[in-house]
Amino acid sequence: MTKREFTPTTEYRYNRTSPLRWILSHVLRYPLLPLGMVLTGILSSALASWSRVLPGRAFDCVLSILGLLEGPFEWFGLEAASRTLLWIALGVLATRIGQGLLTLARNAVVEFLAQRVERDARDELYVSLLGKSLTFHSRQRVGDLMARATNDVRQLNMMLSPGVNLTFDSLMGLVMPIVAIGMLQAELLLIPLVYVALFAVTLYHYTRELNPVSDALRQQFGTLNAGLAEAISGIEVVKANAQETQEQRKFAADARRFRDLFVRRGEIQARYLPFLIYAFAYAGGILQTLLLFQKGALTAGDVVAYVGLLSLLRFPTFHSLFTFTLLQIGVSSAARILAVINAETELDENETGVSKPIRGEVVFENVSFGYDGKPVLRNVSFHARPGETIAIVGQTGSGKTTLTRLIDRIYDVTEGRILVDGVDVRDWRLESLRSQISAIEQDVFLFSRSIAQNIAFGAGQQASMEEIERYACQAQAHEFIAGFPEGYDSEVGERGVALSGGQQQRIAIARAFLADPRILILDDSTSAIDSATEDEIQRAMRAVQQGRTTFIITHRLSQIRWADRILVLRRGELVDEGTHDELLARCESYRRIFARYDVDLPPLKPPPPTPPPKSGEGRDRPPSPSSFGRGGRGVRARR
Fold first, then answer.
1. Phi and psi (nearest 5°) for 168?
2. What is the tens place of the pLDDT at every residue in 314-346?
3. Which of 368, 430, 415 is nearest to 132 (CA)?
């Protein structure tokens, strides 16, 4: 079974060994629906065939009536023949009505099945993506994943309805007429059986040609969609560098490749040989019946019934072009979806692992880590006691952020081990571990929801408005939020586009405070905030940090110096650790980092007590009401 970081409470197990088995396992989750499709399909095709035989019987009856009129006048024989003709007419009407009702029932059953399979497949893919590791997601193109989650899943629906529906109808449209022909006259089976054999051979070659083109078409659609998504997501960079023309050319090139594959598929479809084979079979069948009729082996009614049954073979012939294309696209889409679901991920949720409250002790023992074989951290060892504040400093690329992401198992160590409260992080239940660790990063992500929902996100959306406002006040966010027309119900837009960088970071800080973590990770979390506001936030942070183990990554030495200990990283190695004064006295690497930012810092003083928030203390001015509304855009502060 594939490793994953998240499993829903209830989950249906599907067969993921191949695309066809996966689709079949989805269909068989609702066994009554495919059974209903089979039964209604068989009965509908049987009635359709019988409705072609009855006109032949009526033709013989009419001829018999004409024969009676030409001979001696026989009232009783004429009356019986007329009664028989009436019953045949009623039989034709009944078979047509029955066929229509059964077809309606079959279409409804298949549509229900198709909608449920689409829903289940989309849910399965979404849960699978939630369970993948960050390493997996960092290698994927969002646009391609979106194409699989939307268009490819939709193709599964189309494959079942009308694809499988018409395919099964076509199959019955071959079997039932041939059975009825055999009941008329065994000799008449020659032409239909030859046609079916040639139809199967040409269809096999057709699907062999169509398969690779359908696969390439789906892959190219994913590439096209991924390029479009990247260009739209990075529109600020595109415009800032005046690269609209280049992006337009790239999109046009992707679209041309998609068009070429679409045309190639059309060329294959244009050479669909079953059309020609059916024409020859129809002509040969009529010729055969005429010869048998001349020999007296068939009645005129048999000829009429045979031609009517032979005309039923036209339906599967012409619909097979459309239906098999849908089937091929559906299987290709299933393969693309299954490739994501079955993709290996490095981490496992460890459902049976340790699950208990965390005190906050963190120990690194000879930890090494690398991306794709490239070392990032080498032989790092240190001990953080519960409630300590640990600052991590180093040049860009020294591994500071990576080190903190190993604590909550965003990544797993390559060598060594990390202990939280004396337990290897790999032995913790992942949900229990991560729910007690909060990280505030420089690149803040806010959901396209209200401000209140974004703050409450870390608490599972269960927080009260009083709690939300209290922690927003501690993060110095309450005043600018209150300045919006809808207050805490204001929508922040996609990725928080309606807020300035400083406002985004303060909402993220409030979200972390509300989650009440035992381990707090601050990764340059106040980089977009002015110094005065930062001082206020730092006072709140120091109050919140009491009793919590805190890791701080920052370039602001005013924060670094308040740490209990400082870790100095250089090229992925821990070169020294200690207090600010100790490192300044003995560590050349630390002195170089220190000299870059501030040479003459004043001596340390105890932090003042945290004052209650006052009106007017916010330093970032909120957007005007005209520039901020539900889904509106404010002015983004330059970082």
1. -65, -40
2. 888 888 877 878 888 899 899 989 999 988 777
3. 430
Q: What is the amino acid identity at position 319?
A: H
Res 555: pLDDT: 74
Cβ–Cβ under 8 Å, residues 340 and 128? yes
Q: Give backbone dihedrals phi and psi of 637, rounded to 5 degrees, phi first.
A: -70, 140
Computed on alpha carbons and rounded to an integer, the radius of gyration of the chain in Å comes to 37
CA-wise closest residue to 293 among 303, 285, 306: 303
Q: Please, are residues 193 and 178 in contact by the beta-carbon 8 Å criterion?
A: yes
Cα distance between residue 12 and residue 32, in whole Å: 17
Tell me the C-alpha distance between 547 and 410, whole Å: 24
**Strand positions, DSSP E, 235-346:** none
DSSP string, 417-478: EEEETTEEGGGB-HHHHHHTEEEEESS----SSBHHHHHGGGGTT---HHHHHHHHHHTT-H
Q: Which structural domains are found in the chain, ordered by start?
A: 19-341 (1.20.1560.10), 362-448+511-612 (3.40.50.300)
- For the question of whether the overall pTM of this predicted structure is more than 0.90, the answer is no
Q: For Cα atoms 263, 20, 4, give the angle at the middle one, nearest 5 degrees.
A: 105
Q: Which residue has the higher pLDDT, 380 or 142?
A: 380
Q: How many residues are listed for the chain in this entry?
A: 639
Residue 363 pLDDT > 90: yes
Mean pLDDT of 34-51: 93
